[in-house]
Protein 1
Amino acid sequence: MRIELQAELDDLEAGFQEAGEIVLRSIRGVIDALRTQDVELCDEVIAFDDEVDERYKALEKQVEMVLARQTPVASDLRLVLAVLHSALHVERMGDQCVTIAKLTKLSSHLGTRQAVVESLVDMGERCAEMVKVSLAAFATRDVEQARALHALDELVDRANRQVFQEVLGYVNDAEALEWGMRQITVARCFERIGDNAVDIGEQTAFLVTGEFAEFTDASHDPRPLS
Amino acid sequence: MEAPRIDSGRIAEVSRGLDRSEIERREKVFSVSDLTVSYSGKTALEGVTLDVHENTVTAFIGPSGCGKSTFIRCFNRMNDLIPGARVAGTVLYHGEDLYGRDVDAVEIRRRIGMVFQKPNPFPKSIYDNVAFGPRVLGMKGSLDERVEGALQSAALWDEVKDRLKDGALGLSGGQQQRLCIARALAVEPDVILMDEPASALDPISTTRIEDLMHELKREYTIVIVTHNMQQAARVADMTAFFSVVVEEDGSGRRGILVEYDATTKIFTTPADKRTEDYVTGRFG
């Protein structure tokens, strides 16, 4: 029994779950900031991203050390690789939150349109749920739960398209259009967070089965883009 | 639509080692079926079936007492030399029964050379060590050329070419082991068996032996027993994991083959839980 290796793997996985919890706070932060158009909260979310980045760097360092010193193989190696990939997805989610916060600040003087804000808040909540599911599936090695992320992501993608359609209606109102175009980017950021959660689900499947396969492959998706 | 311009064949070529189907397309050098070895009536190894393919490195790994050394000794009938040893089952060598009545064990050991854990050069000159086999066998052609060729192949020539008449025992452990490999190569074998060839060597000498295995498999078929799992991971194309079964009545222990597959598979996604436990260090 390799006690030291096991302790390091446990530590690595706990660190990843913690990074996931932290990014969930960022996601909840931007949802609140959107709902209340709170510029100060936006600044807090932006500053908070350093926490996410620190966790990611620490995990990357830890992975490097485990690989160098313990040369894990088989399921141990898959765990290390899955944590490394998944941690990067978490870090990207943090970056998306920063972009959402910045856009919210940037467009706050333009006035809000409730229908779009509601759609965005709805998207954000769905994303937060997906992140939670992805972390839980990873922790319990639940491939079925991980696969379910794909269906949840469809709903996020649908909401993303709704925001786009809504904003198209602003074409005759310059100020609303400027605001709306910023919100399309916000929606796009949430949509990416959803994708990242699916990516973590794919890592869970890899961890359990040893086979990496994308749940969906955008380059072979038969459906039209919009 | 135009075809994509990215050459995906090349990407695949760089990123993978030999896979199992590729290995299995190569000619079978050994074909072992249901092999059981016992010493004085006690079973040491039971029911092993596997094939070894040409121009590959095949590694046998497993805990102490799993029968991996017993098994490798079956490939050149070294067990014949142990009183009370009995081999049942078949070992085909290029399709012929290695244990057949009219098989010449000396000829077998010329074609199937062996290198042991502890370098065992003769207390003779470097030259005479390599020349010994060809002389005994009365092999034709220039002896000097044969000695140089073998030392070249064993990656030792440059270090010893100016002192071929010096005693072999004056060489370092790593050099002595390469000399033993040269000695095995000098009689033009087909297969080289290596039983823990680097376990008595320092890391740099170990690396040279491992590099050598990668080189030698172009011309020879190599079978290696190793305690060092990472060594198997580094050098072998195929890996066989052996384990020990303790008899329920406490009468003894016997080795069995648990899993045999491409090395990549054994060290990434082994099929058997016992293999997984062993390679990840959770057992043994």
Protein 2
Amino acid sequence: MKNWAILAAVGLAFAVLPLTGDNYLLRLATTVCMYAVLAQSWNFIGGLAGYPSFATAAFFGLGAYTSAVLQSFDVPMFTSWGAAGLVALLFAALIGGAILHLRGHYFAIASLVIAEVLREIVNTTPDLTGGGMGLNLPLMEGSSVAFEARFFFYAMLALGVLATAVAIVVHGSKLGFGLRCIQQNEDAATILGVNTYAYKTAAFSLSAVFVGIAGAVYASWVHYIEPPDVFDILLAVKPLVMVLLGGIGTIFGPPLGALLLLAFEELVWRNFLTVHAAVLGLIIVALVLFLPNGLLSLVRERLKRAGAPS
Amino acid sequence: MSLLVLDNATRRFGGLNAVDGVTFSVEPGEVVGLIGPNGAGKTTMINMITGVHPATSGRIQFDGRDITRMRPHQIAKLGLARTFQIVQPFPKMSVVENVAAGALFAGGETSLKDAHAAALEHLRFTGLADVADRPAAALTLAQRKRLELAKGLAMNPRLLMLDEVNAGLNASEVDDALGMIRRIAERGVTIVLVEHLMKVVLAISKRIIVLHHGQLIAQGDPREVLRDRTVIEAYLGPKYAAAYSGGAA
């Protein structure tokens, strides 16, 4: 109940942002929401099941290209977004069957390769995908810049809220419990009757579906996609960093991490234009070293100490 | 009808037959001791029955169904539970959550809430109710062994295989565990007990099975089996066996 209240409050607080009329702020907020979707999705497989997936970039690019190609065949935008989510989901279920028996580093490497394979497929099918030339997406008819900024902000916000709502449901369900067992001790989980194969595949698919849709929305938002952009390795690394920042395995850690990462990126980028990547890296290393359980754990400890009778 | 039947079951690792053509059966309600020197294949036998390392040849039946090729989680749901010699808790979860997992995924409970309630019941039975909310990693070894037992019970098993639940415990802890195993057997749960402590084996087994180099070398009444020359040889060598049975004759 408390989780739903927090979700509603944060969602509403974000929803009034367009009233400021500041398009720069709105662009940042849209990116925060997109990051939140990626982080929340990664948390299903990486946080709950404990499988360090680097497949986020693959799902993102797959969603972006699915939607873009469909729209090039005059499929309506919303339909193509839905199709992107569905394709990402089925793709994850299929690939998951092949790589989820790998553990630890081996799984990480296998998941990292998926995006590279997809990128090569896109590069070698220029007739369909535009290949290295990229693909243009149709503009929305009769809309203004300000309208589009608001429209895509709300689309990403809705997606972020949806992903978090699903996270709340999963965390309190048999699926979430089983995934936590797998994360803690997979062999013991099997012996206790957890169908680890099905559970891991479900988590991997959950980690794909919203990312696929986010990729599709992103493609429509920027109107032009190319392989290095939507299969960017950073799209696979950032979700992991965000979840670690906010709090792994928690419900509100991922969105909190998304906000923090974007804030860091913007501040550092503005002030250290030439060395921003290095400074960002240092900050991340420091945070992971000194706050391994994320910022939420700090908040929680404070609350616990304040609530203790002593 | 026998609850568990092994028919010429073999588990091969490369060139080694860790379990080699073993045939035996366990009747409902029985308490069977499974003994043998280190490396005899006792734990491999349990891993083979529970599907962790499936039999490479031969057949295993549980309650009339062929489980030779079933996956571990399917076998667990049929009511075949085991504990681990090296305890396998979910370390960061609370003790009650550990047990609730067994109740939810194999014990037939349908909701997390029911599984929690059932888990508390099993914790009371195993004397862990006081530490229900502690993380499993904080338990002592004796408590962790009891947690393994509680997890096994939560699965609502028809056959419970206990892999050295008494190893590493002191004398009074062993007595406690012994009493607990007896009470479990009294509930009608069939038990296969892998054990090195002869005191425990003799106290509760109606029948024992002896493994050596993966082969079944003797089975039957506990006291008779322990006088068996091949069994003494397996544990202590032919020289001692000759002297011992010579002296007894």
Protein 3
Amino acid sequence: MLVAVLALAAVATMGLASCGSDSDSSGKEGGTLNGTYASFPDYLDPALSYTQEGWTAMQNVYIPLLTYAHANGAAGGEVIPGLAKSLPQISDDRKTYTLNLRPGLKYSDGRPVKASDFTYAVERLFKVNSGGSPFYTGIVGAEKFAETKNGGIPGIEADDKTGEIVIHLTKPRGTFTNELGLMFVAPIPQDTPDTNQSTNPPPATGPYAIVKSDPGKGWSYERNPYWEKANSKAMPDLPSGHMDKIAITIVRNPSTQVNNVEQGKTDWMQTVPPPDRYPEVKSKYEGTQFRVEPTISIYYFWMNTNKPPFDDPEVRQAVNYAVDPAALERIYVGTLKGTQQILPVGMPGYKKFELYPHDLAKAKAMIKAAAPKDMDVTVWGDNESENEAAIVYYNDVLEQLGFNTTLKVIGADNYFTVIGNQSTPELDTGWSNWFQDYPHPNDFFQPMLSGESILPTNNGNFAEIDVPAFNEEITRLGEEEFGPEQEAAYATLDREYMEEAPWAPYGNRTVSTFVSDAIDFDKVIFNPTFGQDLTSFQFK
Amino acid sequence: MSSERHGPWSLAYRRLRRNRLALASLALFVLIVAFVLAAPLWADHVAHTGPNATHTTEKIVVDGETREVVDVEGKPIGPVWFGAGGEFFLGADSGLGRDEMVRLMYGGRTSLMIGLSSALITTLLATALGLLAGYFGGRTDSIISRTLDLIWSFPVVLLGIALGTALAVGGLKIGPLEVEGNSLWIPILIIAVVMTPYMARPIRGEVLALRQKEFVEAAVAQGAGSLRIMFAELLPNLWSTVIVFFTLNIANNMLLESALSYLGAGVQPPNSSWGKMVSTGVELIYTAPILAFAPGLMILLTVLSLNVFGDGLRSALDPKSKLRLEAHTGTVEPAGTAV
């Protein structure tokens, strides 16, 4: 028997659902949205981009079979049909997903969208060694294809005549519906080269097409001519957008970006105002042009549970008592909300608790009682402004606890490569963060805390925690469809991990939306996964 | 007074004493050195905190009023001068709430130490290489000159950033020489190496000219060996150039250190240097301009004092230069005072 999937975030009812732009006809239609980024996104290629900046830029260009609701807050975590007619039908053994392409879909160059374009998109993902490819290695034959890069992926059956797509998984994967909603696997024409296409992005299926891309300077969009003619009729539940054109310029100085928005020279800045200007912008424009936007993220200090002195849980717990999230909120100049748990606010399964209220004296006493033999620790961090300040703070906290620290701050570009390589010496403790890939709590346990995530290179489990009972629970929950029972189990897992204290979590990051006076501010949508929704911008 | 009664060093000293601007610059530099050497005294007895101690959530009493070192929006307290008994004299440095004055003093020690140490290494390396290349010529000159050209062909700051970034992680290990990635010796060695060609090439040129002089030919005729000619005959004639270069190297190397630290490839946190402090301060340039202004001013004064003093030293040691300099002002030094 086949069953329809209930999207994960359907359990959440918070947030301002604002699906579809045609629901509110007030405001101007047309015009050019001028926006600024501080730097060019990692890629303007749907298979390769793995940053919110890139996903903001391409959310309304490349539509996957499934997509996420165009809504603020938790409502934006709801998976809805994209190019597919409906949510997938899943077999009883939860290993076969069946979807059907909507009829009449076209790319922005006029060619029809075919079912086999999905197969091509998945294969291309492996050919270009995308960071998103691990989400899809559970498809039958995908792992072999990842190695050989030829022969096709037998686990995907696509029928161009009927538009049916059947995906076979090697084992159940409770997160797969969410993963089908990521633009990594958005169908693209099969003649798209299997190299980075950031300078010549493939044709679009969404309301906007990228017509010019100049890395380092900016990129621009125009309306997809086949959206109005074909795709919007096939996907009436997706928004068409208000602007005729969108031009994004790279302005490296965020303070200049603030000035430009204030003076109406640009309509929107994607970047968060710099620490120097943040309080001023917030106090002057909050509610009218400025809004703090929560992200589903966690910032934390990891401690290597395999090596002294952090192999002792009491030492790790002491560090948790010593780290003060309130101090880190100040260090991040209001762009961080303190926390002491793994699951972030807004993630299903989040249930607030505070196991380690800040108490430096208690922390010192615990260290004294634990009396670790090795007090020499190397502390790792990256050199991005606030993160560097955070690791300097953490280094000072460890010194106050009596550790002899060596601080290593390295470039943000290769930080995770260095600390993810187990041959790097002295990986004792350090800084890290994680932003959700999709709104499923498994995304915060499997990649960073399960034993199987401990890898020689590209390691994501920096604490190297490997507790068999926790591993089994992560695997079990990851295979099940998400529901209230799983949500409660993830909340319990969150607490159990924090009792082991492999991390000292300290905050959930916030970003912001800042627009000029000309923009209808209340209509601007911030999706927790994709950031600002470009279809929601409208001139007053 | 007739110049014939005095040796060249005595003459140079007398000329230097007459240059009040150079002496004032020297005095300023000495004051700056004294200021940074007093860092531990200020930290222990006035500020009661170290350069890297954070005070993010702490409060202090300023003129009877309790104030937060860093407010809830992350803005650090500004200069309170002696309102808190000298604590946070120049305010706090950032959301970390470190004492800016203490960091300024300790940062100066770092900047000066890097400037002096790297200038010393640069001077030693450049003098040795310049002597070898200029004296032996031929293949030795070709190898040394092409190597220097290779370093010279890279933009200094870019080369410094590349080396600084690469060495910050794994440190440096050449045979028995092992330096940790976060050691101050990393920026010192990088700066020393990348600045060497700028001094070695002129030294080589001067040695090439000196080698043709009669006193060198006389030494050769007397059977003097190469080492003796280089160190006993040529080097004494290079001293004035070397000394002037050394003072200017300190200033140039400090500037390079500031640039590298500003760009994140120099001094590593939590240590401070003036360049690093400017980098941190620039992020708060609108709300707390003193955080960038204070270390920036210290860099300016130090470099200016060294450059003006170096120029005075050159005038004193090199009368041709003095002649040219004073010709512009209408005063011409009598001939026959060449050192």
Protein 4
Amino acid sequence: MRWPKYVALPVLGLAFVSLLPLLCSAQGSGSVHLKRYAMGTVFEIVVYDDDSTKAEAAAHAALDEAVRLDRMMSNYKADSELSQMNRSAHFQPVRISRELYDIIEQSLSYSRVSGGQFDISVGPLVDLWKAALAGGPIPSADEQTAARGCVGYQQIELLPPDRIQFLSNCMRLDLGSIGKGYAVDRMVELLKARGIRRAYIDAGGSTIYGLGYPKSANAWRVRLRDPSGKLFPQTSLMNSSVSTSEQSAPSPLQGDAPGHIVLPGTGKPLQTRNTVSVTAQSATASDALSTTLLLLGPTKGAALLKTLHGISAIWIDPDGQRLVAGDSAVFHLSGEQQSTRTSQPAKAAVEMSNTRQDSPR
Amino acid sequence: MSKLSLLCALLLSSIAWTPATAKVFFRVTATSLPPSDKTAIDDLVLPWPLRDSSIVARFRNAGYTVWLQCDSKNLASVSDAVDPAAVAGVIVAGATSSNQFAEAEEIRSFMAAHKNLSFRILVSGGKQPQMKGRLVVERDGILQVSSPSTQPWLDTNLAAVRIAHSSSPDSLPIAYDFRWSPSDVPPGAWYPDAEDYALAIAESDAVRSDVIIDLPASLQQALNAEDPQAWSLWKRVMPYLGFSSHAPVAKAEPIANLGVIVDNTKASYEPINLLARHSFAFEALRPANLTLARLQKWNSVVVFSSLNTESFALLQDFATKGGIVVFVNSHDKFPWHSIPPSRQESRTTTYSIGAGQIVELGEPVIEPENFARDLRRLIGRDRSAIALWNSLTTIATAYREEAPAETTLYLVNYADQPDNVQIQVKGRFTRVRFEAPEEHCCVPLPFVERNGFTEFTIPSLRIAARVHLDSDGESSAAQ
């Protein structure tokens, strides 16, 4: 095990944005910054506590939890519980762990509220296009039709308290659109149980949770992905989460390269260059809904958010046009008056605006 | 000039290069160390000028091979001062882009006059090998940008070394070094830790280049003082030193299905770095060295530089026979422009030529990660000499050796967590054997042959491993 890279690290690289300063300053004792590979990405955690031994132990335990859940939910690992379930739940109930049952149950609730746009049974389609994304041929129409026949959350039957059955002989579940959020929530629970009140968890950049707030600020500030590079959007987290979804970038060499996010209804990769960031009280919710709202698009997505409590979202397109749904005060853009609270929505709004005053959308 | 630019400029200068043997040097500042047979270190580097002229003899008596590191401008004074019987060689640092050609000549002259000394040109700009995070921790919070899930970012020296290999083969040998990333550690802890050293050693082995690793003064002193914690750390490093020193040193040819033509590394370094991180089996080549013989070893080529008309003809013929050629930031007029493109988009134009194709990208690589993924897709799995599955923190390199007929695959896992690595190597092999610092040579691995590829799995790759793929002579990889 590597030594923890303590918060006083003078220099850390930031791979994603070279614009941001790379210097970090002394934070004082009792803070620890660790990273761990899990779920195909790097989980990072910063824990603040006056007791550095306690902070370090808690951070390690939280990352261990992410690795453990990866082993459970991975569809890459043949011996994961998910993979075993995917091999055996066709037409006969199989017993699964409470955690796997819980996350599938939560997933199905998002499937229902989104009218099936969020669907963890989309695995066969995702795998089909993932192979193409990795260098395989574009799937044929027949292959796409066959894969679509395997998809449909209605064919997942949960049998309380701990069994599951697939009503399709080719169904396969993929928790990639919710698993990191679920893992982050479990990490937060674990930190709280160990008495940690200030922490920051990043699951590969796509789901971020702020527990409490830093000593010298009233919230964790997070800059949001902005494909236009014009808006510099930010949000502030305090016991809340933000997740960001975006389709794979267009192919520089081949225009028709497939993306990794597939529309369950059509069976084809989503065609959009929008980015959506979603804030919620739980990372499970923000993770699941970021994918869902990207698939739904701004108009239908905003309508969905009117039915949900405590969820806000911002869609940004490459031209800098944006749409905010939910609590507009959650997001602040460069030059606008800042707001730092997500827990008490100032107003429910669906707002369309454009930074270029001369070219409204 | 940035360190990277300096590295790139130097590597692509007229300074030629001789294949190195993944020798691990440790740069020390202390005046003594425990004996070599106790530390498992062979080669020490001492900065010039020496504070104590007796230090060389002291280290030699302790069993070490001693090298001196000096700035190029001090080369003459070093040669006058050192006893060739006591010093094995000289590491020459501080070359600059402005006088690199003159310095190369000076160093060659110096080498000719001192045949009993070995030399390495130290290229700066190396990176501490590591899996990096994204967070920047500040006094009042975290600097962070949300994004779609990103793959782990690996800092590796593979690209820089491959670019170094693009120079002519009769040249001065190089070594790279790096600085340990500054870090705050808990009281009583050592930094770098054993895994940091192990990764640096393993990477040097995999990229087949000499590396100079700084041994912090505090650790040197603690080893001298028989500090149990220091020795506990170092005993975890020693298996990697032993593993590295047993690497095959015979002249080995990198296995590559992709050729990368490059002369301006400042513009093309990062795309090449991403090719390395995605375990493309590639070689880098300067434009002047592009020949039919080199092309016959590859099935795909990426061109980052301007070429002459003879090279156009070679590449057109290469494509006609089924090869894939990608020109990056290309605005030249090519012979194949006389035929209509098979595909034209805002940034790319594709020509189907014979059994192959030529793709012209009309702009620099904006997003190297996307470029690497897209290139993988364009080349296709059946043309890739090496492919890894589900191993985003591991890089692989492979080399073919003639006697005995063997392909050796080097694997380095940057995550410091055991990884289940699934590997596909083009070619048919009669035996697959695995070794690692934790597994003495060699553990037979079960493998399957599928469509001309050999597939096998390493159940738990920690930091370093080698896989020996024995051939009966009738099959080979990457052809």
